[in-house]
Amino acid sequence: MYKGQDSRIEELPLEGFVVVDLSVGVAGGYGTRLLADGGATVLKVEATEGDPLRRWSGSGAEIGDEESGPFFQFLAGGKESLVLDPGSADVAMQVGRLLASADALIWSADSPFANIAELHPKRLEADHPHLVIVAISPFGLEGPWSGRAATEFTLQAWSGAIVGLGRGAPDRAPVQVGGRVGQFVTGTYTAIAALTGRVNSRLTGRGCLIDLSMLESIVLSLTYYPVTYHDVMERPWRTERALVLPGVQQAADGLVGMACGTLQQRQDLYVMMDHAEWIEDDAIMSRPAEVAPLIAEWVAERTVDEIRELGIAFRIPHAPVADPSNVATLDHFEARNVFVENPYGKFLQPRRPFQVSSFTWAAPQPSPALGAHHDPFGPVRTHNDGGSGTLPFAGLRVLDMTAFWAGPTATHLLALLGADVIHLESVVRPDGGRLVGGVSGDVDMWWERSPIHLGGNANKKSVTLDFTTDEGRVLLERLIETCDVLVENFTPRVLDQAGLDYERVKEIRPDIVMVRMPGFGLDGPWRDIAAFAYAIEDAAGLTWMTGYPDRNPLEPSCIGDPNAGMHAVYGLLLALEHRAATGEGALVEASMIDAALSITAEQIIEYTATGSILTRQGNRGPDAAPQGLYRTKDVDEFGRLDSWVALAVENDAQWCSLVDALSEVPEFRDSRFASAAGRLEYHDEIDKLMQAWCEGRESERIVDLLWSAGVPVAKMMQPHRQTEIEQLNARKFFEDMEHPVAGRYRQSTLPFTMTGLPERLTQHPAPLLGQHNEDELKALGVTDDDLRVLEENGVIGRAPAR
Asked: Can you tell me the distance from the alpha carbon of 101 to that of 381, in angstroms, rounded to the nearest whole number?
């Protein structure tokens, strides 16, 4: 229980939900932090020396013996700590007693408890059938790659995320997305999985094992449906690295990012920059040597605020590029109070990444001292043998008023898990995802062929309604009345101008959960700025952490959307938990920017705690050395000498294994490299030795040698080659589809398997535009004659209006 800001005593949705945390690291730490924020009791079980993150400082600042680092304090806020010795004879029995009185377990493969046979998730599933178990591992618990060494960096390489969007300079190695983002998104999926398991337990009376793969989480979050794209378009999204323009540029007083996702935005950009003649030569942006100096000159002559004013006027996605020293001072973030003090008052941290109207959050809670919990045992939980075999979200009816990537990826997860999702579009304004992806407008039914739309909308229905008309507005309100959930990601003015804010929607359906996903939030000076992934990444510090140290940062151009989508799903699930207990609906504000700020938390935490500015390191990382990409002798599929292996050494044992495996390089035995500190200091020297060894060898042979030695290594994959990864195939991550217009292609699914789910999740491909108009509108009382008139008037339809 807690006291809310309005002095009401309220209960958070997850109060009474007891979670035992046997994980270490960011993914489990962030996932359980989200659960604790929702009211769950999280008992963090630590080895005698504590979670390694207790001793972590990104800047290398000294941490006192009785203290914990600020990043750990953020991740562990609101939790409890219990110390157990993994080496003791009765540790499995002690953990078992905890689990008998818990509802859920979060387990990670790198935990000091992970190698205890009695504490393996499959054994625990059998011993504790009431328990929801979420097991986090690099590749999943089963399959040919299960148990192999990996880091986020090598997983990014396997996924294709490093090279897939052409990120990096043509004369250098491609570059990773910086800032631990893969671990954070895996943490968000951890929290979603735990609540999905909770819903499933209510249906079945039993627990379940949810096997969460970090590789699959990264595929879904850092690549843009590349397999579907390649199958449909018969070519990859990009084949080479190139400077993305306008991109990040140096203005008169700081860095600013601009990017254009549509033809209209590009043309508006040309006019804004006083180069309307470029409209007749739209390919000019593919000639960076010609145009880049002109763009740089134009930006350099203006301040960031001047560019922002022009960007708003011309509706160009843009944002200042935030870094740890300026992010808290940006006017929009100050107006929205997005940063709050840690309970110890020593640093700032982002507030929770979504707001839910049906309850008010408690103030940020402190992290526990090591071993501070003294009363670990509660009543023993029980289970039933039986119950429903339906999907977890069967019976949940969702009106999906989203477009592009962030919103559709959220509702896609719900649809795969059984929700009845109605994707609402109009012939005047179809989902923008139908309009991107490179399908020519002279191709028959081009709007049904976009791989981007196909990738994020399987298992959904499609209804078209132009709700700017009186007839469409009436029908939309009748449709809302039939739904449990409404999700939308327009800029705030769209629904506000239509008179469909939460207060009106609640009048129509009092217990509805409405999820609004604006780019920059429902208030503040940036609320109506057009927001695409790159602008969100710029403003949140994701761009700042990505790129080469000696050049302007590079926009990830990926994580901003799916990260927002998954945070919106978690906020929705919390609101649904509240509704299940009280019958009360809610407004969930899940802005893209708040979700992004949540996963860049380490930057503002480290800066305000120590004064240190974390910044991009190319392909190096915060906790591995050596770490990098090394060119091999292979010629890639495009005929270029552009094949690489990714390597990351996290500890002394892995270094010794690398040295033994590369016995023909005696220089690696130099005593300077024996310690982690030495390897960091002499990283450049190690890189030269490693590159010299790799460049005469094939990628496959390098990976086979080092992986068998237990060294985290990967072949840098083109993302459209994800289906060649035997681990993904073994886990049936992709499913074959047959679309009536686009033909055959493969469809990504979920990043986890779960006890009781059917073998196949995708029951039908993305719908044709307006495919379900007749079924859904007739259910509202619309007659055949009404349908004909509505179509004649353009209120509904099956093709975009010309």
From this structure: 5
For the segment 522-561, what is each residue's pLDDT rounded down to a tens digit? 999 999 887 889 999 999 999 999 999 999 999 998 999 9
- Expressed as residue numbers, the domain containing 665 is 625-711
Is the backbone peptide bond immediately before 246 cis, with ω within 30 degrees of 0? yes
The reply to whether 562 and 693 lie within a common domain is no
Of the three residues 655, 680, 711, the one that is the final residue of a domain is 711
687 neighbors 619 (Cβ within 8 angstroms): no
Q: Which residues contact 59 (CB under 8 A, 6 or more apart)?
A: 606, 610, 612, 614
Instruction: Give per-residue pLDDT as tens, 712-736.
Output: 999 999 999 999 999 999 999 999 9
For position 446, which CATH number holds? 3.40.50.10540
Query: Is 418 in the same domain as 511?
Result: yes
Residue 2 has pLDDT above 60, yes or no: no
Given the DSSP bridges, would you call strands 41-46 and 80-83 parallel, antiparallel or unpaired?
parallel
In contact, 359 and 4? CB cutoff 8 Å:
yes
Angle between helices 263-272 and 304-314 (to 10 degrees): 130
Within this chain, do residues 688 and 757 fall inside the same structural domain, yes or no?
no
Cα–Cα distance for residue pair 249/766, rounded to 1 Å: 38
Q: What is the pTM of this model?
A: 0.96
Distance CA(295)–CA(259), nearest Å, equals 12
The number of folded domains in the chain is 2
Q: What number of H helices and E strands is found in the chain?
A: 28, 26
